[in-house]
Specification:
The chain contains six helices and 28 strands. It has 328 residues and is of the alpha+beta class.
Length: 328
């Protein structure tokens, strides 16, 4: 996630989290039906590339006839190309737009707006949205295999429907999904959350140990994080301090592992899991959202266990919550 564009990449060492077999099996069994319904509704589907080391996903696009792989990143308001990819594909800068910032400061003092003649996925022309060219400092330690970020506004105007566990990517530049999608998912046990679009990001309320966190939904983030200030306010026990690696600005950040005892997302209780409390410049910005400073970023690791489906065209997130245990 970035104040202008970009994502955060945090690598957990020694912490794994398996998807619930029951949820995964049930969703996988019905994914084909959902994709067939989307195709019948006029949506185009394309292959999704799952990153081998963290679960985030990319799709292949063509810009001005050049094939590029972009990380699907709701934490990036606008689509971004690395300067290296733009130069390799001879995509010119139309005009300068000022600095681009990552989670920990300025990533590029002179980002530019790309001159786009065509922008397609699966041979289908997308509705136009800004594409930025910027220096890209993502740490190559994690084996980067993408050329940029597919931002939220591009997904919004092209009515993307994105699924995890299993992964799929569908879009329709002409119109969003109809209410039937909600009915389809409700019949499979999903619950619907209305997302609020704010400053180019999706707000997704999170409550940890009874304390509310002002958070955004960031599919470009590898791990869910909260600010150290929030962790201290919530009085959550934390592990020893360690160095993490962050987003497009390439600056490391100090953080601590914490394990909540209670966790809820969009007013719904979900299984608790380890997250990180970190120091980031983005958490110090008092006007990051209309509600004030950010307390956290909700990443794929927190929601992937719940077989999420994100309907960007209608600002909806669908989750399959685990059933509460029967009381004796």
């Amino acid at each position: 996630m970035a104040s202008v564009m970009g994502g955060i990449s945090l690598r957990w060492l020694g912490i794994g989290w398996a998807l619930g077999g029951l949820i995964l099996g049930t969703v996988c069994g019905r994914a084909d039906d959902l994709l067939e319904w989307l195709k019948a509704e006029g949506f185009t589907t394309t292959k999704v590339y799952k990153r081998f080391n963290d679960g985030r996903v990319s799709v292949v696009v063509k810009i001005n006839g050049h094939e590029l792989k972009l990380l699907v990143d709701t934490g990036a308001p606008y689509t971004l190309l690395s300067r290296q990819a733009a130069e390799r594909c001879e995509i010119p800068v139309e005009r300068d737009i000022g600095s681009a910032r990552g989670t920990n400061g300025v990533a590029d003092e002179k980002a530019g707006l790309a001159k786009i003649d065509s922008f397609t996925i699966g041979g289908v022309e997308l509705t136009e949205s800004p594409v930025t060219i910027s220096t890209f400092h993502y740490p190559y330690l994690f084996g980067n295999d993408f050329d940029g970020l597919l931002g939220l506004m591009t997904m919004k105007v092209n009515n993307v429907v994105l699924g995890y566990a299993p992964h799929f990517f569908a879009f329709n530049p002409k119109r969003p999904a109809t209410y039937t999608l909600s009915n389809q998912l409700s019949s499979q046990g999903y619950v619907e959350t209305v997302l609020r679009l704010d400053h180019g990001h999706y707000l997704l309320p999170m409550v940890i140990n009874g304390v509310s966190a002002n958070a955004i939904f960031d599919t470009g983030a590898q791990s869910t994080v909260v600010s150290l200030d929030f962790a201290m306010r919530a009085r959550i026990a934390m592990g020893p301090e360690r160095l993490y690696s962050s987003g497009m600005d390439g600056k490391g950040t100090m953080g601590r592992t914490l394990v909540p005892t209670r966790l809820s997302l969009a007013s719904r209780i979900i299984p608790a899991m380890p997250i990180a409390a970190v120091q980031m410049e983005i958490f110090q910005q008092k006007t990051a959202t209309s509600l004030g400073a950010l307390d956290g970023l909700v990443a794929f690791d927190l929601v992937a266990r719940l077989g999420p489906v994100l309907d960007v065209g209608n600002d909806r997130l669908y989750l399959r919550l685990p059933k509460a245990p029967d009381r004796p």
